Amino acid sequence: MNIETVIIAVAGIFAVASSIGVLLTRDNFYAALYMSVTMIFVAAIYAVFNLQPVVVIIALIFVGAVGIVTIAIAATYRARPSRQVSLAWTAPVVIVFGILAYAYYKFATQDLEITGQGVFPAVASDYFFVVVFLFSLVVLMMLSAIKLARRVDL
Amino acid sequence: MIDVDVSQLTVILTVSGAILLVAYLTAISAKDLIRLLISLELMFAAVFLAILPLFTISPATGYALVIITAFTSSTELLVLVTAIILLDRRKRGMDVEKVAVGGDSL
């Protein structure tokens, strides 16, 4: 086991631990914080493979924008914490996780190789229409959300 | 050029599956919309980890999927923030139990 595998394993353990923190904490504010920490560790795993554009996307969009908005909303509505864990669902989840982990361990038999790390600038031209359509979708959703929010009286 | 050996692949996919299952567990036990929003973001974190092996086959497709995932997540945040605002205005609270049935009333 080389040093990269150890770093990935440690980052993965911290990511899972912080996601379990989301499940166990009673306060929405701390749950949002744990979610942002999980995202940071996911970005750290990408950083190990030197996929820097993905690290930037996760750090800027998921932690910087989505995470902060979620934290702000959670901080606003943190007045009524309640117990979140449904113990009845814990056993099936643990069993499914065990099957998944065994399947990955059993059937992952071939090394993979990350190539073409410099192709990110070409993505904007190769997938130009996809990006344009996605921008249009977000703008459309934003306008619909504004119209919907204004239609409901205070 | 980086090699992803079998142990790294196993760790990445196992962590992805673990985060996804924790997110599912959080979603089905959520009692308010904010916890639901957080669990959905956790699911996107698991999706990001599951995409990583795709970079070994087709990096351009991997980057495109990452961008699509980012847009999808942002749109999902937009919709859920709107839902939170509307639910707070109509029902005076965030609890999902306040919504008994779906659909608009005529």
Features:
heterodimer; A: 154 residues; mainly alpha; globular; B: 106 residues; Helix Hairpins; 3 helices
Strand composition percent of chain B: under 5%
Q: CATH topology of chain B, what is it called?
A: Helix Hairpins
- Morphology of chain B: elongated
Terminus-to-terminus distance of chain B: 60 Å
Count of individual beta strands of chain B: 1
Poorly predicted runs of chain A are: none
The chain pair forming the largest interface, with residue counts per chain, is: A-B, 84 and 70 residues
Name the average pLDDT of chain B. Answer: 83
- The poorly predicted ranges of chain B are none
Q: Helix count of chain A, per DSSP? A: 6
Main β-sheet of chain A: number of strands, strand sense, barrel status?
Answer: none
> What value does the Rg of chain A take, in angstroms?
20 Å
SS-based class of chain B: mainly alpha
Short description:
The complex is a heterodimer of chains A (154) and B (106). Chain A has 154 residues and is mostly helical.
Give a verbal description of the structure.
The complex is a heterodimer of chains A (154) and B (106). Chain A has 154 residues and is mainly alpha-helical. Helices cover 76% and strands 2% of the residues of chain A. Chain A contains 6 helices and 1 strand. In chain A, helix 1 (3-24) runs antiparallel to helix 2 (28-48) and helix 2 (28-48) runs antiparallel to helix 3 (52-76). The mean pLDDT of chain A is 81. Chain B has a single domain, classed as Helix Hairpins. Chain B is 71% helix and 3% strand. Chain B starts with a strand and ends in a 15-residue tail after the last helix. The interface between A and B is large, with 84 and 70 residues.
